Amino acid sequence: MLRDITLGQYYNTKSVIHDLDPRTKILGTMVYMVSLFAFNSFWTYLIAFAALCTVIVLSKVPVRFMLRGMKAIFLFLTITVLYNLFLTQGDTIFSFWIFNVTIQGLKQAILMFFRLTFLVVGTSILTLTTTPSNLTDGLESLMHPLKWIRIPVAEIAMMMSIALRFIPVLTEETDKIMRAQKARGADFDNKNLFKRIKSYVPILVPLFISAFRRANDLATAMEARAYRGGDGRTKMKPLKYKAGDWIAYTSMLLYGITALAITVLINFQTFMLKA
Amino acid sequence: MLLIADHLSYKYDKLNKKNVLDDVSFSINKGEIVSIIGHTGSGKSTLIEHFNALNTPTEGTIYYDGKDIFEKDYDRKALRAKVGLVFQYPDHQLFEETVYKDVCFGPTNLGLDKKEVELRAYEALKKVGVEDDLFFTSPFELSGGQKKKVTIAGVLAMKPEVLVLDEPTAGLDPKWREEILNIAKRLRDEDGVTIILVSHSMEDVARYSDHIIVMDHGKKLLDGTVDEVFEQAEVLREASLDIPESTAIMRLLRKEGYMVNTAIYDADSAVREIRQKIRF
Amino acid sequence: MNKLVKTQDVTYEYVRRDDDGNVENIVTAVDDVSISIEDGQMVAIIGHNGSGKSTLAKHLNALLTPTEGTVWVDGIDTSDESRVWDIRQKAGMVLQNPDNQIVGQVVEEDVGFGCENLGIKTEEIWERVVDALKSVDMYEYRGSSPNKLSGGQKQRVSIAGIIAMKPKCIILDEPTAMLDPKGRKEVIDAITRLNKEENVTIILITHNMEEIIGVDRIFVMDKGKLVMEGTPREVFSEVDKLTELGLTVPEATLIGKKLYDSGLPISLPVLTKEELVSEIGRARLSKFR
Question: What are B130-173's pLDDT values in tens digits?
């Protein structure tokens, strides 16, 4: 049922990770993502795994919530892994029928598997430990320099925030409209794709009309509460770095340096061996 | 008995311990006007969505015309034509370009031929009293009361045996409230349609129903005739419900020692009773 | 007492166009209305759907400006565009649909929204938000998502959002129309308390007559015109005229009137149940004498 879907999968608990400034978490996630692509040796991945485990433990979010995100990309993950496993050129380990598994392919497949898994789990930590409104505040603050090239950052952030506020409202409304049309004998399980699309018209029309009406009301309400764009607005919850954030930044730096050092070391070793 | 709810319970999901409906049983006779009352969150909306199998109960079942509607082979699509459900907000179902086309939606879904569909739509619109010159206007240009009429016609065109109206008078002014409720009454009187009314207005409920079911926190609190239910003012108050204003006045007079009947639900009867029973 | 809100010969017209952009007709939504509301009063504007009461209300905080005539809010002419934001701060507005006016994803954030727009410092916003939530009895829900609240609770959050802007008056445009009786009572109790205890001027637009028995003044609108004005006692004396305008009166008032018409010496109008009972008692005694 539609009403069961909760968007913005925030997991409500208290932890050091929840307490971090959203900017720290967004930047941290970005550093982590970059590291997964930039460094891809066994040792750096081991460190990446250790870092991930540490953050998971600190966040106090049950691991099954993190793995929920994996379900969504399961198909994609399988295809990527199989593609790399069977279609990478190199030294054959064994082959059957038309498939040819190579040592390079096997390495590449394992790498891809871990890279994608780490990526998904890493980003879901961000969304699991940060409320949507905090996330928008963080993004707004980080994108602030874009104002200089005339991008209305504050207004975009307000739009995102309002969208998040109304998603559950509109989801519930969709559910109600669907029931109202079902009560008039509408059938949404048609096998024929064309007919199926057509059967959604009785849902979409009322939904759009309602969304426009809500937008109109909301604009009036915001105007009545003296909203006039981002300029001159103050913040009820301004973002402030705390001690924990500096610790987090230091850890990020250490993580980056270690990974970089290991990569350099490995490359140096191979270089020496060749020489 | 046309419709029987048999130990009906409903939960949104298995993890959630709270019952939205908790062991509800009652029966509704053919040709009755039944009102279901209760404050928001009492489970009344969830309940009525079981009547045409839009919801499936977690436990218990519903018998319609003697048959279990949640039995595997029961034709629930056909049931939706027999038990017509009109939702609270007309804006949730109006979508066609014209009033007439919108009313055709229901019967078309039943797979009837074009001629029959158009005939039914015409009859339904006439029955609720929509004027001919509105047939080909956009439903979105209508007033709230007219929209309500069109949505009722949209369900009537499926020729239901039971018509369920979820808060049909919400947001309407007195003139329209009266008109909408009279449509329901006329359908019962002239065509024998069983009417199930969900309402907040105790005045409306008292004036139009034969039978009242009171819901509170997912449970059935009271079930009986208008007189039986409104006699229980204290029980109703505990469920955050009122009694009709006229009844409250009569109760107050009685408390002051006047021997008046308290089963009075509108101003005219109140005046009559006061003039008869109190010697001036 | 000074006049907080005053309208002088206000007329508002809008032009209706057909699909080709030709003028179809000109609708006069508000027609030559002059009202004045004193500081600290609680007043009601009533009328059936389409009587122009909502359009008039939108003039009182400069969401609309009159085609003809003038509106003053705390001495400021609403057509003075440079003062629009001052007016919006002084006269707050709560709309009918509780879902469509909450901006924040958390209750406290929504209450602070107006203050943020006014450029108030963070610490003061928090003080105001806490006070405002307490004044409508919603403090314990400060951390909830608005989606989890009942209609009455949502409307009280909207009222708190206005209160936090420290307005002189609040205009409520049918705030109870979409609520159940319990929610209705919560909202009416909250605004009555604000009026009595914090001296906020309240302008309540409604068609529920039971809600307005206790107000200081009632304005009755019909077809864009102001047709009646007075205290509840004065307005409810004219039951026939109100019925003609498509409005109902409180049940006790109606019964009182009908008893009077049947020949009993009831002094009209009767506003409450208790009044009716004591009037009946008095009528009995007067007959005995």
Answer: 999 999 999 998 989 999 999 999 999 999 999 999 999 988 88
The answer to whether position A208 is within a domain reads no
**Smallest Cα distance from A206 to chain B, Å:** 6
| Residue among B259, B265, B256, B249 at smallest CA distance from C276 | B249
Quickly count helices (H) and strands (E) in chain A.
10, 2
Strands C91-94 and A99-102: unpaired
The residue ranges of DSSP E strands in A187-261, in sequence order, are: none
pLDDT in tens, C255-274: 999 999 998 999 989 999 99
Tell me which chain C residues have a C-beta less than 8 angstroms from the C-beta of B253: 277, 280
Tens of pLDDT, residues A40-49: 788 889 999 9
Beta carbons of B209 and B201 less than 8 angstroms apart: no
Closest CA in chain C for residue B239: C182
Which residues does chain B have within 8 Å of residue C245's beta carbon, measured at their own beta carbons? none
pTM over 0.90: no
Query: Cα(C115)–Cα(C104) distance, rounded to whole angstroms?
Result: 13
> What distances in angstroms separate CA B184 from CA A179, A246, B33, B273, C265, one per listed residue?
22, 69, 9, 28, 39
Chain C contact set for A218 (CB, 8 A)? 100-101, 103
Distance CA B83, CA B188 (A): 14
Residue at A111 is within a domain: yes
Asked if residues B158 and B106 have their Cβ atoms less than 8 Å apart, the reply is yes
pLDDT under 70 in chain A at which residues? 1-8
Q: How far apart are the first and last CA of chain B?
A: 48
Strand B162-166 to strand C225-230: parallel, antiparallel, or no bridges (unpaired)? unpaired
AA letter at C276: L
Both tokens assigned to C40:
């600290």
Q: Residue A203 domain-assigned? A: no
Identify the three-state secondary structure at position A210.
Answer: helix
**Contact between residue B127 and residue B157 where contact means Cβ atoms under 8 Å apart:** no
List the single residue in C with minimal CA-CA distance to B203: C251
Domain residue extents for chain C? 3-249, 250-289
User: The tokens of A105 are what?
Assistant: 């392919």
Domains of chain B: 3-243 (3.40.50.300), 244-280 (no CATH)
Per the CB < 8 A criterion, the answer to whether A17 and A242 are in contact is: no
CB A234 within 8 A of CB C114: no
The reported pLDDT for the residue numbered A7 is 42
Amino acid at C162: I
Q: How many domains does chain A have?
A: 1
Right CATH for C3-249 from 3.20.20.370, 3.30.430.20, 3.30.450.40, 3.40.50.300: 3.40.50.300
Classify residue A157 by its DSSP letter. H
Q: Which of C188, C196, C229, C194 is nearest to C212 (CA)?
A: C188
CA A21 – CA A11 distance, rounded (Å): 16
What's the CA gap between C239 and C255, in Å, rounded?
A: 11
Residue at A49 is within a domain: yes
